Amino acid sequence: MKLLVLTGLSGAGKSQALKAAEDLGYYCVDNLPPALFPKFIDMVEEADMPLVALVLDIRSGLFFKELDVAIRTLDERVDDVTVIYLEADPHVLIQRFKALRRPHPLSSSIARGIEEEKRRMQPLRDRADHIIDTSKMTNYNLKIRLKSILIEERGRLGVSVISFGYKNGILEEADLIFDMRFLPNPYYVSELKKKNGLNPETRDYVFGNEKAEAFVSYLVNYLKTFGEDYVAEGKEHLTIGIGCTGGFHRSVAMAERLSEALKEAGYSVILGHRDLGE
């Protein structure tokens, strides 16, 4: 059994993280009381469930003091446990609580509640295999980041390829960003203006320019040359941002083609289109 433990601060995105795990085939349980862990593990082992995800957080209330013990129990009972801790800047968390119009579970003062929660959660943060700061992440960006962690192959560079539009802001989480505005823009072709880069006609137009395929070859060769060096330095996943003006035509077509080429080269690839919401 592969067990994923999602934990962290209230408002940092654990619900979205659980949805991402569910999309990848994990059996998901939100806020299971630690006292039930042993019975739960027995149940999922008996049912032969290969992928299981649990959310552990401050909502356990009086049982929270047991969480650190629960993590040690999971480590002893399950061979493959991954703990992902989600956090965000306090000012961002306060704004999220205000937007949702709900109180912090520990205090009528959101700020005091956040500080107390950080203190109580420190043992789990120390145990975490991955710490993700969601302060500047949209739900979509968080979903892509989590999927990259959950499917990456150890010792082999995993890659996320995400298209975006510069007019909607830079792709904050990208390690490498490439600008596709050197290619002719389908926006100015009347029959292609409303057809995004997933459309075969738009894609054919973009790759009618020989430099588009040359760019794909360049980037695949770049990863073949330097990918192992990233892994050797401890970076097992690389996020590549492919941008154009609106994130609708050129960047989408390029991200699709680049993803195909990288998969053909043997890489584990996650593909996303930020400004298409896909």
Summary of the model, kept short:
It contains nine helices and nine strands.
How much helical structure, as a percent, in the residues? 40-55%
Structural class by SSE content? alpha/beta
Radius of gyration: 21 Å
Q: Mind describing the biggest β-sheet? A: 5 strands, parallel
**Count of strand segments:** 9
SSE string: EHEHEHEHHEHEEHHEHE
Please tally the helical runs, counting DSSP H or I stretches of 4 or more residues: 9
Strands of the biggest beta sheet: in what spatial order? Answer: 2-3-1-4-5
Overall 3D form: globular
What number is the mean pLDDT? 87
Sheet-strand content, in percent, reads 15-25%
**Contiguous uncertain segments of 5+ residues:** none
Distance from N terminus to C terminus (CA atoms, Å) equals: 30 Å
